[in-house]
Structures are given as C-alpha cells and as structure tokens.
C-alpha cells in the first residue's frame, strides 16, 4: 500500500494534468488563469499581486505582460510623478472576463464529476484532513 504523501503526489499529478487540459481549451496557462482570478478578486496592482501570489516580481511581470498581449487584461498607468516608481493598474477585459467565466464553469463541472459519488460527510472529512495536513506543513516551514 502506498504511503499518504506518495498518494498526494499522484493526486497532484492527476489534478495538474486535468487543469492543463482545461486551460489549454481556453488558451491560457494555469498560472494565467490563477492571475485572472486574483485580478477579479480585487488584487489589481503589481504589488498586491506579488503579495497575493508570492511570485517573484520579474516572473509576475512577464505573466501580466502575456495576459495584456492576449487582451485578457488591460493596463493603466497610475500617477504622473516623474520621480515616482511606475505603478500600473490591471483590469479585466471583456475577453478576460469571458475566459474566466468559462474556466470557472469547467472547474465546477470537474469538481462535480470528481465528487459525484462522495457523500457530503466524506467531502467534509477530506477538507478537514487536508487542512490539518496543510497546517502541519506550515509548522515545519516556520
């Protein structure tokens, strides 16, 4: 019988593969989809997104640029002080909102299919155990 952490690795691989297939249909990457979600949730400046995503500034900047090029995000310069560091505001375009809406629908369908044979009690127990495991990992990191 496999160990718990080995099973988690298998679950993570399967989950990532399904997400890649889903995001490919909507011409975004998993990271781009997550960024769209963050912008939709109100994190709309680079500093807010760095804080929310824990990504390196240069990595985040590249990903945001790709989303702007794909016309999923719009960028607006904030402030006009020449000595101040450039600050940009990112907003969802109509195309970006549509991609996010479709991705969210597909994700909900995936979740429904995955847990269709599970009782509510089983789903709640899984959440409790995964949260407990995550807390244990956080204790090790600190």
Automatic annotation (TrEMBL):
Superkingdom, taxonomy of origin = Bacteria
UniProt domain HTH marR-type: residue ranges: 1-135
Q: Which SMART domains match?
A: HTH_MARR
Coiled-coil blocks: none
- PROSITE patterns noted in UniProt: HTH_MARR_2
Give the Gene Ontology MF terms in alphabetical order. DNA-binding transcription factor activity
> Which Pfam families does the annotation name?
HTH_45
Q: What is this protein called?
A: Transcriptional regulator
What organism does the record attribute this protein to?
Ligilactobacillus pobuzihii
Matches recorded under InterPro entries: ArnR1-like_HTH, HTH_MarR-typ, WH-like_DNA-bd_sf, WH_DNA-bd_sf
